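Reminder to self: tokens first, then the designed residues, so the page reads top to bottom the way the pipeline ran.
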């Protein structure tokens, strides 16, 4: 009998130890799963907060821009899908390194990050706006399905070829209407070529472009505000001797205005 009691006591103690160990392991496992789940949630929250904080910083820079472009930048940032900015113009819109399109691209990448804008530069050398329309050169832009188009009409070439302001404006309208019809979500910005020292008729033609843009609710970027006055000798050093392109300093002046427009809201 005594041996039986000892045996029962041993079995009872062993059972208690086994059950206690099982309970402890179950508790540890449950706590571990809880900690893992909690940790994952906190990481996700941290990433969301970091993303929101990053966009809040970017939001400060784009306050100069039209609301539709702001919304496009926000969507691009959230979806990690670059906006396609197509810069289209005459020889004043150069593809060369250090030209104003290149300087603007550098500014956009520096401010918004390299994944926000994809920039394509297209330059029609030696063409008037009439050439652009008659030869349908503008169709190359339609093929690109841009989100934003920054357009510099060939007004300097039109001026030298005596196209006439009315014809220039009519050509511009044909081009813009084509882009809008083929891409209803595109945002179009229009700007003049660079100014020329002591020019007589050309500034009046550019002024008519500005008025035409305002009358037709076009977004007009008046970068001439950043240049010296037409009769200022300093203007000579901002264009090439042929006068059909801005010099390096001229490119910097031009890009300075556009940079302030695109990222100067801070």
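Designed residues (266 positions):
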């Amino acid at each position: 009998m005594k041996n039986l009691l000892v045996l029962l006591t041993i079995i009872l103690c062993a059972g208690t130890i086994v059950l206690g160990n099982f309970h402890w392991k179950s508790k540890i496992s449950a706590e571990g799963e809880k900690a893992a789940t909690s940790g994952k949630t906190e990481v996700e929250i941290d990433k969301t907060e970091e993303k929101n904080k990053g966009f809040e910083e970017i939001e400060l820079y784009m306050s100069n821009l039209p609301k539709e472009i702001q919304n496009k930048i926000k969507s691009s940032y959230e979806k990690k899908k670059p906006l396609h900015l197509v810069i289209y113009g005459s020889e004043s819109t150069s593809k060369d390194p250090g030209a104003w399109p290149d300087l603007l691209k550098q500014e956009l990448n520096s401010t918004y990050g390299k994944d926000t804008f994809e920039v394509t530069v297209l330059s029609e050398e030696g063409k008037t706006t009439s050439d652009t329309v008659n030869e349908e050169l503008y169709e190359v832009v339609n093929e690109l399905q841009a989100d934003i188009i920054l357009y510099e009409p060939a007004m300097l070439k039109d001026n030298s070829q005596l196209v006439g302001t009315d014809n220039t404006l009519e050509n511009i309208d044909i081009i813009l209407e084509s882009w809008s019809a083929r891409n209803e979500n595109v945002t179009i910005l229009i700007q003049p070529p660079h100014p020329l020292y002591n020019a007589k008729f050309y500034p009046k033609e550019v002024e008519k472009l500005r008025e035409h843009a305002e009358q037709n609710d076009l977004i007009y970027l008046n970068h001439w505000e950043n240049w010296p006055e037409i009769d200022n000798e300093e203007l000579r050093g901002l264009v090439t001797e042929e006068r059909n392109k801005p010099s390096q300093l001229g490119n910097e002046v031009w890009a300075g205005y556009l940079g302030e427009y695109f990222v100067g809201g801070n």
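The chain has nine helices and five strands.
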